[in-house]
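User: I'm writing a tutorial on reading structure tokens. Could you give me a worked example: one chain, its sequence, then its tokens, then a sentence or two explaining what the tokens reveal?
Assistant: Sure. Here is the example chain.
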Amino acid sequence: MTFRSAISICFRKYLVFSGRAARSEYWNFVLFLVLAAILAAVLDYVLFGAGELVRTDTGFSAASNGPVTVLFTLATVIPGIAAGWRRMHDTGRSGLFLFYPLIVMVGILGFVSVFGDTTTLSAVVVSVALFVAAISPLIVIWWLTRPSEPGENAYGPNPHEVAL
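And here are its predicted structure tokens:
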């Protein structure tokens, strides 16, 4: 799948959370989102002076909250989630697995709010939970990089075997 066709498919399927997305479709769309976000930040800086570029010990740090970046983010957050959801389907997992790190964080906050005392058991449980929270985004990235499940699965036909 080409870069351009991946972008086209992801925007055509703006609100489609069913079916499957090939690995190349998803990662080409992610590349587009990163490159376009950089371009939006540069446009904000040039047009509005919004954002800042700070030199740090390890390089540069950039932040932008200008109107172009905000509008781009609002326009692409749903298709980005939908593409990730379909990508999870392609690997044979529910789309909810995309939100695994968020679910872990909610669980930690719930545990701390209910059992917020300073007992040793609480400290151990929170330590283990924070470790899981640290690795959960890496697990999701791992799932997103897995090859397509061969043949048809519960979410539809393999995108490599279906003519576009």
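What the tokens reveal: Helices lie at 3-12, 23-48, 67-90, 100-114, 120-145. The first strand starts at residue 52 and ends at 56.
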